[in-house]
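Worked example 3. Consider a protein that binds manganese (II) ion.
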Amino acid sequence: MKKYLSYSAEVQEAMSTGKPIVALESTIISHGMPYPQNVKTAREVEQIIRDNGAVPATIALIDGEIKIGLSDDELEMFGNSQGVAKASRRDLGYLLATKQLGATTVAATMICADLAGIRIFVTGGIGGVHRGAETTMDISADLEELAQTDVAVICAGAKSILDIGLTLEYLETKGVPVVGYGTDMLPAFYTPESEFTVNFRADNPEAVADMLRVKWDLQLKGGAVIANPIRKEDAIEKEFIDNIIQQALTEAHNNGIKGKDVTPFMLGKVKELTEGRSLDANIALVKNNAVIGAQIAVAFNA
Ligand code: PSU
Ligand code: MN
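Given these inputs, the predicted complex is written out as structure tokens:
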């Protein structure tokens, strides 16, 4: 299994000297944000993680290998090329065997991080139960991965392109803890709050690290969602964004968007309809998550 893994020099060094490492996904680069903001953000997020005492490991599939840590040129390639596949759990075997470029989703990044022994992962938003899933059955593989793979995901909560209530029910059934970082309310990505509460609240990195340590000491398989709210100054007004999401959902439906294309379509459409404000918010919240995620990795490593 180790023969499929290939580490950057920076990650290799961190592993041999026992430094804290933070995993990062690549779907957010290739399919979640437009070029060139995607590459710029990816680089800045990596630097924020370094500045907060941890080592970044952006994960992607290249030429039959799972790359744990990308070079600057590789980040550029993932941000600026059309032929990158969106890689979730089901895609890993095929994309590696055929030596294609694959940008890993939350689910696939968790799998690869776990193979590399990395327990802390920072991103913007997770996939979830989509609105209308009671008929479409569109439920992200991210949720099943959180149920079974031992990686904590620091994100900005669940986006309201999803059915947040059903996403929480699914996570509850699967025994995945949803922790609010400094909040009792579940953040909803573009807004710091939603109408839903989290399961537990943690007010500092040590509290998160302690909870993860006990969970995994007990061999309770699976991950955790650490939901860190977007800062007020970066947030988008709830009524405005809800309206836009409703329009984007209608367009997705009218265009017959299905399967793995739903989330990228929605992100692109919301960006267009907000004239870029959703992208600015997305960039700000990922950076905010990188600060907290690095601090959690440091505490978990202690
Ligand atoms: N949410 C975002 N940005 C993203 C994604 C989700 O705000 O880029 C990506 C993540 O990689 C996530 C994936 O794992 O979309 C979920 O896709 P799906 O719903 O097809 O499982
Ligand atoms: Mn889906």
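Take a moment to read the result before moving on. Residues 25, 27-28, 31-32, 88, 105-106, 124-125, 127, 140-142, 159, 260, 263, 267 surround pseudouridine-5'-monophosphate (ligand 1) (CB under 6 Å). The mean pLDDT is 97.
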